[in-house]
Design brief:
Layout (H helix, E strand, L loop, with lengths): L7 H42 L9 H24 L6 H21 L3 H45 L2
Helix pairs in contact: 2-3, 3-4
């Protein structure tokens, strides 16, 4: 007669790697927390020490490079969404983050009233809604993938 579940030895064998993974994850989270806390005084230092206005010779390259990253994130989001793959969450989060950063820097680097007004309009009516839609899309695809997985489990186990 076969046992109904894993033996105590098998359960311990499975739990040990899970506990080790949880410890590594907590350590990584601690490293991120320390990095975030270290960035607070650094940000204050930059806020008081950087010049109010700086002309950068690589300004165009910075924006073009940033937009290339944004295009890659958007295309990956679309690719995983079309496949209904729950991995869409990663590029969708990147897309949302990049769109919010884009909106912020567009507004903050705009020169003059007209440019600032235009940047604010783009932020309010294009970039921020697109970022929110990206998060919504990721959640919808993830929800659909969870439903499919639950459906598969119930039909394969016969319950």
């Amino acid at each position: 007669m076969e046992p109904d579940g894993p033996t105590a030895g098998e359960a311990a064998h499975v739990e040990a790697p899970l506990e080790a993974m949880n410890r590594r994850t907590r350590r990584a989270a601690l490293v991120y927390m320390v990095m975030g806390l270290v960035l607070i005084p650094w940000t204050v230092f930059l806020a008081v020490s950087l010049p109010r206005r700086e002309v950068d010779t690589h300004y165009r390259g910075a924006w073009v490079g940033f937009d290339i990253l944004l295009v890659v994130a958007i295309v990956l989001t679309a690719y995983y969404a079309f496949r209904m793959d729950d991995r869409v969450q990663l590029p969708a989060m990147a897309t949302a983050t990049l769109l919010l950063v884009d909106a912020w820097f567009d507004v903050m680097t705009a020169g003059g009233r007209r440019s600032t007004f235009q940047a604010v309009l783009f932020a309010l009516f294009l970039e921020i809604p697109a970022a929110l839609f990206s998060l919504y899309l990721a959640r919808q695809v993830n929800r659909h993938a969870e439903e499919l997985a639950a459906h598969d489990r119930t039909h394969h186990t016969g319950t």
